[in-house]
Amino acid sequence: MSGLVGCNAKPETEFEKTVRLAKSGDAEAQYQLGLMYANGEGVPKDDAEALNWYRKAADQGDALAQHHLGNMYANGEGVPEDDAEAAKWYRQAAEQGLARAQTNLGAMYAQGEGVPKDDAEALKWLRKAADQGYAIAQQNLGNMYEFGQEVPEDDAEAVNWYRKAAEQGYALAQYSLGNMYYNGEGIPQNDAEAAKWYRQAADQGYAIAQNNLGAMYAKGEGVPQSYVEAYAWFSIAAANGDETAKSNLPKVKARLTPEQLVAAQKRVTQLSEQSNANKE
User: Which residues contact 34 (CB under 8 A, 6 or more apart)?
Assistant: First the structure.
């Protein structure tokens, strides 16, 4: 009696499956394969191959692939840098409603990169993205209103857009909103609110906010006065490259007793561990 012979074929890997589908013309698989090559996931990083597969998907109308293809032209990855080509692909994705592409296209119009500078077009595309809740566009729109770029200066409107982005956890917008509260621009001055928003940005590793929070502890503005906390936040900000914090650190250190300095150094370690945990 003879035995049956089983099949020893190895199961198809995720990469192999994606390649098979991409070669069959599946646009989503082509886009995913582009991502794999761009990020070196399951395959050696290869910008030229990423560009190849993004283009195949983009030519089929895949908005994410069009956006990534625009990024590669904008940054000169796998292809010579070409702002006009970047704008072309961003536009195709933007016209399909992709917020990040609308934001990038708006920025290109604002700066005149790849397209003629056009403030009205810049505002149009940024607002489309901001109205979809895209935090980067909301921050950029807030910035335009705060400084009167392409729109009449309007601090209250700036606060409105900064808050929308800040409430989504966008660190730059949290810092910007903190500034508005600290300076009383577009909103009643409120040190406690300023410290609150600086802290949220600081907890995400935003160095300028870390320095500002340290300054508020040093002066007791919006938070209980504490040179220990000030030293800790200045230390973290300085380690993250903030030049003002590097200047502030020895000034506040001179105000600490030896016992306070030990406590401050322990606080630095604690904040560093919290920051590392937030990144995980």
Answer: 49, 50, 51, 52, 53, 54, 57, 65, 68
Of all residues in the chain, the percent with pLDDT exceeding 70 is: 96
- Residue in the structure block whose two tokens are 């770029």: 149
pLDDT band for position 149 (cuts 50, 70, 90): confident
Q: How far is CA 66 from the centre of its chain?
A: 20
Rounded-to-integer distance, Cα 137 and Cα 134, Å: 6
* 139's tokens: 């921050």
Place of tokens 């200047």: 247
Q: What are phi and psi of 77, to 5 degrees?
A: -100, 115
**pLDDT tens per residue, range 35-51:** 999 999 989 999 999 99
Averaged confidence pLDDT in the chain: 94
Count CA atoms closer than 13 A to 275's CA, side-chain side. 21
How many CB atoms neighbour CB 179 within 10 A?
Answer: 19
Quick: pLDDT tens for 249-258. 999 999 999 9
HSE at residue 7, side-chain half, CA atoms within 13 A, is 3
Segment 124-143 shows an average pLDDT of: 97
Cβ 212 vs Cβ 178: under 8 Å: yes
278's tokens: 């937030």
Interatomic CA distance for residues 170 and 276, integer angstroms: 18
d(CA 106, CA 98): 12
- Distance in angstroms (rounded) separating the CA atoms of residues 108 and 6: 59
Please identify which residue in the block is written with the tokens 């400084």.
147
Does the pLDDT at position 9 exceed 70? no
Residue 113's identity, in one-letter code, is: E
How many residues are recorded in the chain?
Answer: 280
CA 146 from chain center: how many Å?
20
